[in-house]
User: Fold these one by one.
Assistant:
Number 1:
Amino acid sequence: MSRPRLYVGTRNASSWAMRAWLALKASGYDFDEELVDIRRPQRFRNLAVIGEFSPPAAVPVLDTGRTVIYDSNAIMEFANDSCDGRLLPRDIEARAHARSLIAWQHAGLSSLCHRISFESAFYPLKRPLTDAEQDDCNRLFQCYEATLDRYGDAYLFGDISLADFMHAPTVVRLARHSLDTLAWPRTEAWMRLLLAHPLVSEWLAEADRLPHIWYDDYLVDPRDPATLLTAGPGG
Ligand SMILES: N[C@@H](CCC(=O)N[C@@H](CS)C(=O)NCC(=O)O)C(=O)O
């Protein structure tokens, strides 16, 4: 049987792969890693190769040698199963709550902050966020704060869990756009802790060394598409 292999995208583009990679590493599961360059123009050719063994033709994919697991959340659940459930809360109610946060993120977070792309977290120049985006973020911060109030000691549910890993790329996106978190002190402390986690730091250090992937519409003002927003304080 061949060794387990995780196919991941480039570190500054592949937020779904980051989640799966974090969970597998934290579980202690042993795997080889294969980088799939999902930047254009090679993106389509490379994803077609993935499509030969994985129906969605996307990354991440984990090939255990016996099973192809082709979704980040399924890989994260597998990571948790492979370490006796250590990456989800033991308590059934807390576990359901954690899974709600995980499912919300996996389903797109109701499109909150969708114009703050993962790629833009690594840009040297950051645009100021619109009021609507700050309101979106506040909604999210309120949710994090309430979760941390109820269960959190350090991480969302006390010990680090799949919920923290699932939200890690969002934390990267928001933290790097210098959002105001003063009203959410527990959230601010949790974001700092998560960003300083050795596995998160390892991923980000590699992402920061890569050439940027620019999206043409990053600086376009959504209220007035003819106007370009200028760099904000994080820029
Ligand atoms: N629901 C999938 C989403 C995976 C996904 O969208 N991956 C991106 C890279 S982060 C990709 O490979 N996209 C290929 C495409 O859209 O053609 C998961 O959670 O694994």
Note: Strands lie at 5-8, 32-35, 61-63, 68-69, 220-221, 224-228.
Number 2:
Amino acid sequence: MTSISGKTDIDWDAFASELASVETLSEPAQVKKRSRDFFWYSPILNAQLKRSFGDLVALPSTREELAHCLATAYAHDAPIVLRGGGTGNYGQAVPLDGGLIIQTTKMDRIVEIGDGFVCAEAGCRIADVNDALIAHGRELVMFPSTQNIATLGGFVAGGSSGIGSVSDGMLRDPGNLIAHKVMSVEATPRERMFEGADVNHIHHAWGLNGVITEVTMRTVPTCAWIGCMATFDTYGQTYAAGYALACASDIKRRLVSTVDARIADYFPHLEGHVQKGRHLMVSLVPAEHMQVYRNLVANHGGTVDLAMSEAELKANGLPHVFEFSYNHTTLQVLKADRSATYLQVGCPVPPDRDRIEALRPKLGDDVWMHHEFALLDGNVVSFDLPIVWFTTAKRLHEIEATYEAAGFPISDAHTCRVEGGGLKNADYRHLAWKKRMDPKGLLNSAKSREWANVKHLTSEEIEAKIGR
Ligand SMILES: Cc1cc2nc3c(=O)[nH]c(=O)nc-3n(C[C@H](O)[C@H](O)[C@H](O)COP(=O)(O)OP(=O)(O)OC[C@H]3O[C@@H](n4cnc5c(N)ncnc54)[C@H](O)[C@@H]3O)c2cc1C
């Protein structure tokens, strides 16, 4: 079989035969489908990545099968990209060098639900983990709005925060990720346990420094969450209400998002449920705190247009409210118009309504704000995931410059290199572990700009660069 990617000279038919009992997919259409993620959110990434494909997909269902795939790739020097649900936004799961795609979704066993934790295989769909936890009165400490598709391993390797972050911080914060098991890429792959603070050696490294096989994550008590949509006349009021809710000592919350009215008008599901033309606050609040929540909204000049339990949302044909938050907000707009894109922007701490209001007119009509509130290092913060109506890369950079000039730092959402986004700089701790776990540099190496500069060093030499 010739290489689909055009980037390898491996005999992929022979390779597939060597994988023996492991299920594989080699039809070009199937391989190409599994070579994509949600990079098309960015017109810049779309142009760069839409023709990058892998050569063969393997779907191991046990650790033994996974180890066999990794050992075979090691023997052939085959590039490898791990794939969970394929919901990453930056092309994290796109095989830039071609090669083997290992899809983990058949490794989906829940291993143990214990006191305050769940341990599950990396390919477990996150919604399945949450469904299993409900019977125990618990839920994951946080989860992405993509829980219906995304896997636990993909969230740990590619994600950072989500529903729950407004009360429990980031994934990387102590205690949220309890442990994970990670397999190396060697002639005989070994599994290694990372616990406590060491989980961050692997977390958010985009699968370039080891294959996560099992994740142990903190759980929290679940309750009768009410999905709420409140509307306001001005975005300033909405943002101030969001900040107040994120700080409230008398209201529990799992989600606080504020959305510009022009974005909210792109949510057809909400027609008849939420007043049109008004700015929106999306939240998850427990039933017993609804009265205090209603008072908070009224005190900020808003009205509660929708308040429904999970069952009521379902009965009304409505999705989870978190499908109007995080990067789902962008998706709702993209469903109607592919010329939209987005940015990722930090905001001054503490959140400041006046600075948001002062910035809005400077940005122009092609930028529509959307903020998520979260806990970061114990402080309530907000970050902006605005819709941007894309015209040219030049205009996009102009918008970024306007944000930065006003003191709102940009994390590049339009790069497929791990150093370009939230990390900004090379993470030498990640790269040192890559050297240990993936000595030949087969795992998703093209996603690190810095790897090429350090791959000839020992792991200790790479580690010595930390903080320099
Ligand atoms: C609509 C939308 C909403 C989103 N909302 C959120 C959100 O709320 N919070 C958030 O953090 N992110 C969010 N994201 C980004 C993305 O959904 C999350 O990062 C998600 O958890 C990724 O899981 P996945 O299984 O789809 O991973 P994939 O996209 O398959 O993979 C992500 C990265 O992890 C690597 N990887 C996958 N499995 C493994 C493994 N077992 N071992 C090692 N590496 C592995 C891949 O190679 C890739 O680099 C959103 C994206 C979209 C499109």
Note: The radius of gyration is 22 Å.
